[in-house]
TrEMBL record:
Organism name: Rhizobium miluonense
Entry keyword set: Signal
Pfam family, one: DUF1287
InterPro entries (alphabetical): DUF1287
Organism classification: Bacteria, Pseudomonadati, Pseudomonadota, Alphaproteobacteria, Hyphomicrobiales
Signal peptide: 1-21
Protein name as annotated: DUF1287 domain-containing protein
Length: 208
């Protein structure tokens, strides 16, 4: 999909998100281990203010685009780095080098590319699945705990990933919010059940 069409779709999604009700209720079911991950994701709100899918060359390991911009995957990558020192760029690249056939080939890749591989939702989903972090998809709000990762399919067949928040909706009690970059930077929104969910992961950084 070209960048122009993607930008138009993101603008429409942003308009939908901005119309959602205010949300600020705490989630009493929040476990303790992912609280650092949620805090690290929430700390990006107001810092990352742009959605920018441009391919750029970045450092390796520890590479990143400027903090004021990024895509949905950057929220996850930055949160794990900030909270635990986990570098998903390096971890995923090393796994792709050793197990390239286990990853999607949707982009015509002939070899791993540390500039972009970790910033693609299907690659992260494959990595988390290979790490035995995949969970079943449920409609029960309580199945989604703070710190969980959920992949979605947005209109226009756009893949997306969110971090489940420790706050819940005021519109539907118990429905978790998510922290994401869906079009205009990192935000905390009530969209977990607004789009098709395609994957659910609980990727602990250390034994719990």
């Amino acid at each position: 999909m070209d960048v122009t069409r993607r930008a138009v779709l993101r603008t429409g999604l942003l308009a939908f998100t901005s119309a959602l009700p205010a949300v600020s209720q705490a989630n009493p079911a929040a476990p303790t281990w992912p609280s650092s991950l949620v805090q690290a994701a929430r700390a990006q709100i107001g810092v990352t203010t742009r959605y920018d899918p441009t391919y750029v060359r970045i450092a390796y390991p520890g590479g990143d685009v400027p903090p004021d911009r990024g895509v949905c995957t950057d929220v996850v990558i930055r949160a794990y780095r900030r909270a635990f020192g986990f570098d998903l760029q390096k971890l995923l690249h090393e796994d792709m080098k050793a197990n390239f056939t286990a990853y999607p080939k949707a982009w015509g890749m002939k070899a791993p590319d540390p500039n972009i591989d970790h910033r693609r939702v299907p690659n992260l989903a494959a990595y988390f699945t290979r790490r035995k972090a995949a969970l079943s998809l449920e409609d029960d709000f309580a199945s989604y705990r703070p710190g969980d990762l959920v992949t979605q399919m947005l209109p226009g067949n756009l893949t997306h990933i969110v971090i489940v928040s420790s706050k819940t909706s005021t519109e539907a009690p118990g429905r978790p919010l998510v922290i994401q970059n869906i079009g205009a930077g990192t935000s905390e929104d009530d969209t977990l059940f607004a789009y098709q969910r395609t994957g659910h992961y609980r990727f602990a950084p250390a034994p719990v």
